[in-house]
């Protein structure tokens, strides 16, 4: 039986994939597997039995990835599963920043009880006139699952689209329309574009990438859209830029105490992935990845351990070892098994940065004492026998 804990509500279509071999528990302390959306896990004690965390979503800045890796806990996310939901809201954000729909709607509400409302609407509507996006230049920073969809959709609406991503993957490059102008520096986007949208993860090198220096390079009256994470933007610098008119409008899906009421900000309550379709896609992908890892040791879409297709289970036992990526580990693992006269039928070893993962298939049972011996090897972080 595998105990799992959901730290946020996870769509039923995903949770229902758990069979009778899985049991939902009330506290993280009892869990071997965790499902999470946006709940912060940074201050949480991670129990010794915890083996995997699946983030039903893309951003993993709410999870202490290094601390998890150090404890042999594999963290998964669900790349692309909510990308269409976010793309659609970004397109809405482009419109809301261009046409004063929000101001107009609020105004109608303020005059709704006036018997002359229809006449007042025609008389007063000019104060909410806007501009069209057709022919305007859009810069997309980060051409991953969301950025590519946004770039292609904006291109389809007649915008001239520029894209920047120094780590562009082959898969995403294939999906990018040939009309998108791929640029080699962010500065080209800053200097050129009327609208700039960011779709990068929050990392030390992307934190506050939109700040007074980068905004100084932008066109006067630029519109900035942030459907990625609030800390990508320096809020004090944004406030000053909005006041000066350097930035015409800032659309954010991550309002905080500073930006929620800021003039010139369109604040949306983190709704990018809040669609039935995205929530279902993320939940199904997260649960499938978690189950596959718990049941077979295969790692797919991990952000802190290497991906590893462990293949079908052997007739005997499978030993999975999460360990440090340091020399001489395989010799020690195979040494323990050969000293017990155990034959290895298959061995896979993968590494990612400071961490590695080894899967060893044997055609017989494995005693707890031998498992213990492997666990005691320096650099071994977690051992499982499936
Ligand atoms: N608003 C929401 O509800 C919502 C939903 C999903 C994702 N997000 C956020 O959006 C981000 C992007 O999501 P995604 O699904 O497209 O992820 P993704 O991993 O598919 O794409 C991220 C892209 O950013 C690129 N990148 C990384 N560092 C960069 C840099 N310094 N400059 C330019 N590009 C860089 C990567 O190469 C990658 O192509 C997530 O990390 C998350 O924070 C928000
Ligand atoms: O779970 C959510 O609602 C938001 C998820 C989103 O921010 C993500 O990074 O995938």
TrEMBL record:
Its EC number is 1.1.1.399, 1.1.1.95. Residues 318-386 form the ACT domain. The keyword Chloroplast does not apply. It catalyses: (2R)-3-phosphoglycerate + NAD(+) = 3-phosphooxypyruvate + NADH + H(+); (R)-2-hydroxyglutarate + NAD(+) = 2-oxoglutarate + NADH + H(+). CDD domains: ACT_3PGDH, PGDH_like_3. InterPro entries: ACT-like_dom_sf, ACT_dom, D-isomer_2_OHA_DH_cat_dom, D-isomer_DH_CS1, D-isomer_DH_NAD-bd, NAD(P)-bd_dom_sf. Keywords: NAD, Oxidoreductase. Pathway: Amino-acid biosynthesis; L-serine biosynthesis; L-serine from 3-phospho-D-glycerate: step 1/3. Signal peptide: none annotated. GO terms for molecular function: NAD binding; phosphoglycerate dehydrogenase activity. Transmembrane segments: none annotated. Catalyzes the reversible oxidation of 3-phospho-D-glycerate to 3-phosphonooxypyruvate, the first step of the phosphorylated L-serine biosynthesis pathway. Also catalyzes the reversible oxidation of 2-hydroxyglutarate to 2-oxoglutarate. Belongs to the D-isomer specific 2-hydroxyacid dehydrogenase family. This is D-3-phosphoglycerate dehydrogenase. It comes from Anaerocolumna aminovalerica. The lineage of its organism: Bacteria, Bacillati, Bacillota, Clostridia, Lachnospirales.
């Amino acid at each position: 039986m595998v105990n799992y804990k959901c730290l946020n509500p996870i769509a039923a279509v995903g949770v229902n994939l758990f069979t009778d071999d899985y049991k939902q528990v009330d506290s993280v302390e009892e869990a071997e597997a965790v499902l999470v959306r946006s709940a912060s896990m940074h201050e949480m004690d991670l129990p010794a039995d915890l083996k995997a965390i699946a983030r039903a979503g893309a951003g993993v800045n709410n999870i202490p990835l290094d601390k998890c890796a150090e404890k042999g806990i594999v963290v998964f996310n669900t790349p692309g599963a909510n990308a269409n939901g976010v793309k659609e809201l970004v397109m809405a954000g482009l419109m809301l920043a261009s046409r004063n729909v929000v101001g107009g709607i609020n105004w109608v509400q303020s005059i709704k009880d006036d018997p002359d409302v229809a006449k007042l609407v025609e008389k007063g509507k000019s104060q909410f006139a806007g501009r069209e996006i057709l022919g305007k230049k859009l810069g997309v920073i980060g051409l991953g699952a969301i950025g590519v969809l946004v770039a292609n959709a904006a291109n389809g609406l007649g915008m001239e689209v520029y894209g920047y991503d120094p780590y562009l993957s082959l898969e995403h490059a294939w999906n990018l329309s040939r009309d998108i102008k791929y640029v080699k520096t962010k500065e080209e986007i800053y200097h050129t574009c009327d609208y700039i949208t960011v779709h990068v993860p929050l990392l030390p090198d992307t934190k506050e990438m939109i700040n007074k220096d980068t905004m100084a390079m932008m066109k006067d009256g630029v519109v900035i859209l942030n459907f990625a994470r609030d800390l990508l933007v320096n809020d004090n610098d944004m406030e000053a830029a909005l006041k000066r008119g350097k930035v015409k409008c800032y659309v954010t899906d991550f309002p905080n105490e500073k930006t929620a009421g800021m003039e010139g900000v369109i604040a949306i309550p983190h709704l990018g992935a809040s669609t039935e379709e995205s929530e279902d896609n993320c939940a199904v992908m997260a649960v499938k990845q978690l189950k596959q890892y718990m049941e077979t040791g295969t790692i797919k879409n991990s952000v802190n351990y290497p991906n590893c297709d462990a293949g079908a289970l052997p007739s005997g036992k499978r030993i999975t070892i999460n360990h440090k990526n340091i020399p001489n580990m395989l010799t020690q693992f195979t040494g323990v098994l050969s000293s017990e006269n155990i034959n290895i039928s298959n061995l896979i070893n993968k590494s990612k940065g400071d961490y590695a993962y080894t899967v060893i298939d044997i055609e017989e049972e494995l005693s707890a004492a031998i498992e213990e011996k492997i666990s005691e090897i320096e650099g071994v972080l977690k051992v499982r026998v499936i």
